[in-house]
């Protein structure tokens, strides 16, 4: 239970801020994978379908692969720390 809380809260905060986006997407994606495959038995239709868990899982997998992008806080911090070259 504690891992699910950490995955949902920390993962979501990291993704929202764009700080450690891939780590946050991995944490939240693992939580959604457990929700989809264990709690909903991998079903997309019928009663107790895990359609929303699957959509969130796909979203977090996309963020994990693609990263936060140029507007992420990681990019701004990294750009500020890089020395200026001529």
Keywords:
86 residues; mainly alpha; 4 helices
Structure description:
The chain is an all-alpha fold and 86 residues long. The protein has one domain. Helices cover 70% and strands 0% of the residues. It is built from four helices and no strands. The longest helix is centred in the middle third of the chain and has 19 residues, at 21-39.
Portion of residues within helices: 55-70%
Count the E strands.
Answer: 0
The fraction of residues assigned to DSSP E strands is: under 5%
Taken from the alpha-carbon principal axes, the silhouette is elongated
Rg, rounded, reads: 16 Å
Low-confidence regions: none
Quick gist of this model?
With 86 residues, the protein is mainly α. 70% of the residues lie in helices and 0% in strands.
Question: In terms of topology, how is this protein built?
Answer:
Elements: H1 2-17, H2 21-39, H3 51-66, H4 73-81
Helix pairs in contact: 1-2, 2-3
């Amino acid at each position: 239970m504690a891992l699910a809380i950490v995955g949902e809260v920390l993962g979501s905060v990291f993704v929202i801020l764009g700080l450690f986006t891939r780590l946050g997407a991995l944490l939240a994606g693992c939580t959604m994978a457990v929700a989809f495959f264990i709690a909903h038995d991998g079903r997309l239709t019928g009663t107790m379908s895990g359609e929303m868990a699957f959509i969130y899982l796909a979203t977090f997998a996309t963020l994990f692969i693609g990263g936060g992008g140029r507007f992420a806080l990681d990019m701004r911090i990294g750009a500020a720390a890089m020395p200026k070259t001529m």
